[in-house]
Amino acid sequence: MVVEKSRTNVYLDTKLKEQAKEIYKHYGLSLSEAVNIFLAQSVFNRGLPFEVKIPNDETLEAMKDVESGANYEELTFLPTPRC
Predict the structure, then answer these.
(1) What span, in angstroms and rounded, lies between the C-alpha atoms of 23 and 30?
(2) What's the distance, CA 68 to chain centroid?
(3) Where are the membrane-spanning stretches (predicted)?
(4) CB of 65 closer than 8 Å to CB of 71
(5) Tens of pLDDT, residues 61-72
(6) CA–CA separation, 9 vs 11, rounded Å?
């Protein structure tokens, strides 16, 4: 079966694009192939192929803390005694 292809231009966040390409490379996929999979799943699901959630204020604040390293405590795990 021959699939007709078309060229499409999209504007992407440069950093996000590069991070995604690295992830897809581990699966042996190009960015184009990954986008085609996303579109096929969107059509199959008749919508986004995943649930979209908007984080609440507390979660957003925690995410900012993680990114900035704020409120960070180093933990030391001690080995558990063997019986």
Answers:
(1) 10
(2) 19
(3) none
(4) yes
(5) 998 988 888 877
(6) 7
| Model pTM score | 0.62
Tokens standing for 71? Answer: 């409120």
- Here the tokens at position 32 are 């184009």
Residue 20 CA from chain centroid, whole number: 7
With b meaning 16 or more CB within 10 Å and e meaning fewer, what string describes 46-73?
Answer: eeeeeeeeeeeeeeeeeeeeeeeeeeee
Please give the backbone phi and psi of residue 64, each rounded to the nearest 5 degrees, phi first: -65, -40
| CA distances, 79 to each of 68, 73, 74, 83 (Å) | 30, 19, 16, 12
Structural domain boundaries in the chain: 14-67
